[in-house]
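Let's practice the habit of predicting before peeking. Look at the sequence and jot down your guess about where helices and strands might fall. Then scroll down.
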Amino acid sequence: MKKNNFVVVMTILVGIIWLFTPIALVSAEAEQTLQVEATNYVISSQWLPVGDEAGHVIGMNQREGEGVFSNGETAKYSVISTFDARRSKGGIAQGYSKFTFDDGSLIIFSWTTEFARSQEGLPFNQGQGTIIAGTGRFAGITGVSAFSSKQLKPASEDPKLTMVANATITYTLP
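Done guessing? Here is the structure:
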């Protein structure tokens, strides 16, 4: 009888472990969402005229700043991008953004956006991004972002062209 009880108990225990293991795996990979506000400014920018119309340029720039996340964390924020712009009409841009956290962990996005100018003449945009890499506690991260940003003041008042970007990041960790 003792042997039969042992077999029954072990069978039940293995069944419970087998039953709850998929739940543990699913919860570890559950999709999560974070909001971030990233204030950033130009540290380097270069452009060249296309030559087809006045004010049409292609260029690249580098921006830096800080991101504040909805969970209270902060991270250094950096951007490198290329753009094709027409004065007073808007344009397109693509690039890479990186959040560097205090513990050294990184999240890196590739993104594309379209931009235009407000009635005040200040640029604003909306775009989408894809997480392409993560390190440290974000190793193996996958996900996407939807964002918008706007320049706060004209260049005459703010030569660093400070912008505020707001993003929703939807991600999964392994």
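How did you do? Strands lie at 32-49, 56-69, 74-86, 90-101, 106-117, 123-134, 142-151, 163-172.
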